[in-house]
Amino acid sequence: MFETDRVCLVRHFETEKNVLGIHGDSALDGLTPRGEEQLCTAARRLASHQPFQGVVFTPTPQARSSALALAGKLGIPLEDPLRLEPCRLGLASGLSQQELYEKDPHSADSLDLFRNRVIDATKLAVSGAETAEEVETRLLDWWKQEGMHRCPGQIVVGSNSTLVMLSNLLDEKLPLSGQYYNYAIPNGGLRIWKRGQTGWTTSPGLSDSRWPETDTAVHKTRRGRIHLTRFLPGWSPSGKCVLILPGTREGSRSGCLGFNTELARQLGLLGFLSVTVDPLGCGDSTPIRRTAESDAWSIIAVLQMLAGQESMASASVVGDCTTAAALSYLRARSDRIRAVIALVGVPWESQGFRTASGRESEAPCTFCMEHASGYERAERRPSVKLKHDSRSMGFVLLPHVRCQEELGSSEGAPTRYIGDSPSPGVLAQSVAESIVDLEGAF
Q1: Any idea what DSSP says for residue 146?
Q2: Residue 78: its pLDDT value, please?
């Protein structure tokens, strides 16, 4: 029995076009290896819901190839394409953002501001692109003539711009309203909408899907103030929370050269509520002596705050190996920490950064120094052991040969290896996959 009062929106899976960062029209529609993984993930998620009637798609090569693959995975019909065309981007169509900057900096700046939710559709000014009024007129005409009849009961696979159009339409925010903003929709992201007496709704609501926006906060505790930054999730929320701690040799929650900030932002795009934390004794937080015990205490305090404000009763934690080892010990004694991910290797090496002298950094991995960096006082306390618990701890290995040799057989802990110079997006995807692997075990 199919429910015709719901619709599932899915962004097409990663293709060669996405890897090249091309805007608008492109014939590149082959799924990348990551696109194939996104296909399998979406199929698993949809299989847990009551079946949909079939799969329809908006008329782009990327949406068609993804819809065909998804219908095959789910064993449901692939229907004829919808007639909802993507937004016409004028000069930007077929260009990467860098190419657009070279041709028309004003158009590139305007598109950048819209994609980052600084301006709404009425202020978007790209040379040759259709106006907000034109988009609204054809969107309403299409919905009346086709969309409202063909979309309910179906999985709709679309491009980023068509899903932004549909999301705002279902949320009753039209292009001329001044409230029509972009949503960060990752490849393979999905949302299910249900029709009620007052209109269409989705859960969780879109109010917090404001990536890349951030909120900063100060949490007052009996031991001092803890400073943190929340990176709001994108359009396809996972319902999961990730706390990112600075390494024991890093000065603040932003990490080395902003490494933790970029990781948190990319995890937010994937749907995680990501929070960078200055534990007590670090960064902007109260400058007491930082120990393994104070880190663990800070995390529990932040989780208690999030439980009240975000209804997030638990979270995963990401840190360097020294930090993660201490928190892994805590994980075995607290159900608030779902998983612990250790980033092995120093960030500036993984990013190809060089030291001030111009030479590649040769600092050893902190796993090799877990009894010697930052937690000297804590490790002498018998109640705190800096050893990892492989039942709740996973490793993401950055390209650092010594670390890979050291952790080649880490007592069965899930380990993911990353190639040379990974982008923050690739690293975030690996961290997200590790979290899913570990949380699935509980």
Answers
A1: I
A2: 96
Name the average pLDDT for the chain: 79
Rounded to 5 degrees, what are φ and ψ at 299?
Answer: -65, -45
Read off the pLDDT of residues 94-121 as tens digits, 9 standing for 90 and up: 888 899 999 999 999 999 999 999 999 9
Identity of residue 382: P
* Residue 397: other Cβ atoms inside 10 A: 23
Residue 380 has pLDDT above 60, yes or no: no
Domains and CATH numbers, the chain: 6-203 (3.40.50.1240), 214-439 (3.40.50.1820)
The answer to whether 231 touches 212, Cβ cutoff 8 Å, is: yes
Query: pTM of the predicted model, to two decimals?
Result: 0.79
pLDDT at residue number 141: 98
Q: Tell me which residue of 128, 377, 55 sits closest to 248, measured CA to CA.
A: 377
